[in-house]
Amino acid sequence: MQIRSTTDDDLDVFIDTVYAAFGRFPETPIEGGGLWWSALETDRCLLARTADGRPVGTAAAHSFELTLPGESLVPVSGVTAVGVLPSHRRQGVLSAMMRHQLAQLRARGEFLSVLLASEAPIYGRFGYGPATYTARVTVPRHRAALAVPRGRGAADGPATGATDGSVEVLRRAECGETLEEIYDRYRRAQPGALSRPHRWWDLRAGQPPISPAPRYVAVHRDADGAPDGYASYSIESGTLTVDETVTTDDTAFTALARFVLGHDLVSKVVFEHVQPEHPLRWQLADFRAGEVSSDTDWLWVRLLDIPAALTARGWFTDGELVLDVEDPFLGEHGRYLLTVRDGKADCVPTDREPDLSLDVRDLGSLYLGGTTAGTLVRAGHIRAHRPDATTLADALFRAERSPHCLHWF
């Protein structure tokens, strides 16, 4: 079997192979673009061929920036389009492609890789761990009233629930540059968020509101008229579905939530991609009106260079931990002393006794602060060697707020 990077001449073969791997047929091009594969970087696509030249597997990677705790922005590879033809599964093709790809990423000097897992059991064995989570919240229209905020003082004026600013309804085609600018400001401050390169918006490659699928967009403007949030939505069979709500502060989110929850001629409002611990349900007058479903993983993280990754993010508690990390897929093992002082970390190899023993996939889950060491210790995945190691790890790895990723790739 041969695995090599593709060229522009291989694109049709690559697309046909990945579609065949998933038992689907390529989409017909439409006016205005919108094909998901148009944003692929050809030199970052891999094609696996048999000895007689038949294509049997694919894998690709996008170039993104990932926002880490502490608002550090780092380059990251977004792994996508991974597939093996049904006729060649369980013959080592996928493992060979994943090993080849990880070697390529390291050769590029990258220390992190991320993906969205189509099936959860697959990617853990390659060292990826779930690191951000997302849920759907459904609110019946007749129970959609927002509560009056209780944390107001007399100086704040009457508690009417009104907010400064305004909401304007636009068609997706009218506000592309505005959406791109708002999203970019949002993702730079949100741990776990990925960049959306301009070419994605330009090619309209992805899911709404990037794609050309018809959508209305509610754009919020602050008291000075500057756009600071949007909600992309559609209505079908009496259900208003919000693809994503992107804001730079809670005031804008509340205004947009009030707008969609107050929309006439709908029976329910569905908010997709609500991050853990979001205050939306607490903002409802009837707490039980917000029904949570599809509570699932989203972004999976894989560390390729542990010291580089741990020193790149910000930290919010001082302390020392010795991490004993196994990487079964790459056949590697390392023990590292992590020392955090004043928000910065130092990470060096050590022969000291470990505080925690863990798999590299578990370190990926801890990395953005969306999964606690305590949870993984209780699950039997991490071994704590001293009583206070778990508590310290929970404090060290926490983020300033829950990591969340909206971007699909």
TrEMBL record:
Do you know which InterPro entries this protein is assigned to? Acetyltransf_17, Acetyltransferase_Eis, Acyl_CoA_acyltransferase, Eis_dom, GNAT_dom, NAcTrfase_Eis, SCP2_sterol-bd_dom_sf
User: Which Pfam family is one of this chain's hits?
Assistant: Acetyltransf_9
Q: Which CDD domains match?
A: NAT_SF
Q: Which residues form the active site?
A: Y123 (proton donor), F409 (proton acceptor)
Taxonomically, the superkingdom here is Bacteria
Q: Which residues cross the membrane?
A: none
Q: Which Gene3D superfamilies match?
A: 3.40.630.30, SCP2 sterol-binding domain
Q: Which residues are involved in binding acetyl-CoA? A: V82, G83, V84, R90, Q91, G92, V93, L94, S95, S118, E119
Is the keyword Acyltransferase in the record? Answer: yes
HAMAP family from the xrefs? Answer: Eis
> What is annotated about its quaternary structure and interactions?
Homohexamer; trimer of dimers.
Known PANTHER family for this protein?
A: N-ACETYLTRANSFERASE EIS
Protein's name in the database: GNAT family N-acetyltransferase
Name the species this protein comes from. Answer: Streptomyces ossamyceticus
